[in-house]
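Hello,

I think I submitted the FE2/S2 (inorganic) cluster job twice by accident. Can you confirm which output corresponds to this input? Input:
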Amino acid sequence: MTHRLYLCHGPSCSARGALATRQALDTALWEAGLLDTVELQSSGCQDHCDHGPNLLVYPGACRYAGVTPERAAAIVARHVRDGVPVEEWLATPAMRRGTR
Ligand code: FES
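Support: Only one job matched these inputs. Its output is below.
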């Protein structure tokens, strides 16, 4: 495996559309021919509930916030396939639950 992806399926991220994001990730990985080299897993809460759906990408780790289906496809293409994290969609420390 070259990458491991953990998409939050906690209650907030699920309410914010994690299932559609999961489907978009599956499709993007398949279209990019990466199903054999990338592991996609569901995770529990990642403590950034107000900004989900949240996606952790290893190695890194990089945490993405607000991962819509459109962003999911772009993250697969730009970060996972091309190796360039999408800086503008990375979570910030202030997004962590309990830091406000
Ligand atoms: S439910 Fe996804 S970060 Fe808490």
